[in-house]
Amino acid sequence: MSVTARAPIEYFSALQAIGICRHAFIERVPGIDVSHDKAEALKRLDAVHGEARREIGMGGWPLLTAQQVHGDKIAVVDQPVARDQEFAGCDGMITNQNKIALGIHVADCCAVYIVDPKTPAVGLVHSGKKGTEAAIASKAIQQMGERFGSDPAELIVQLSPCIRPPHYEIDFAAQIIEQCRTAGVTKIHDSGVCTACDVGRFYSYRAEKGKTGRMLALLGLT
Fold first, then answer.
1. Is pLDDT of 120 > 60?
2. Average pLDDT score over residue span 82-100
3. Best CA proximity match to 17, nearest among 141, 136, 152, 113
4. What CA–CA distances, in Å, run from 72 to 28, 33, 93?
5. What angle do helix axes 136-148 and 172-182 make, rounded to 10 degrees?
6. 31-66 pLDDT, tens per residue?
7. Would you give the end-to-end CA distance of the chain in angstroms?
8. d(CA 139, CA 179)
9. Which of 13, 26, 32, 49 has CA 20 to 30 A from 42's CA?
10. Class of 9-221 per CATH?
11. pTM value?
């Protein structure tokens, strides 16, 4: 692995305009061999992902991640956190705490960013085929309302790049958007980008037959 590898970072204008949060979508990292299983790929990407977190101002924040089992369980973080943590059995996290980095790894699935600028609070969920079937984004929105008092009409939702037809048989991005609308969200933004269409820029589990790295979605309140 090259110690000089640098992560390309994508930002979303809808989230940049809010002003109360930091976010990033870390794309494929050139020069790192990730043609391995997920655990080894993440190990090889760890150092450069850590450097990217520092670059966007999240270097000193605890990193909270989900185990990502393609389910619909959401971890609720309503107290300060001192160290990095992975939530077993979860595919999403919501928090009203400042200076905590929520992180979701994806390679075709969608990372759904949810921001409540009024409460404030944020959520980040992993929604692929199974997670979308279980309406995990809707459940995160519902739980933000129950736990933090978030009003769906005030929320801003951003979908990350993810796999789309014709490279995948299901357009789960469209389903996520519809679920968010049904939940009462009106401000929904979609990158519209297909990960399998550009493996020079993104990791794609489908296009690379399971042996690939992971993009890292990051979101946190300042």
1. yes
2. 97
3. 113
4. 26, 31, 10
5. 30
6. 999 988 888 989 999 999 999 999 999 999 999 999
7. 32
8. 10
9. 13
10. alpha beta
11. 0.96
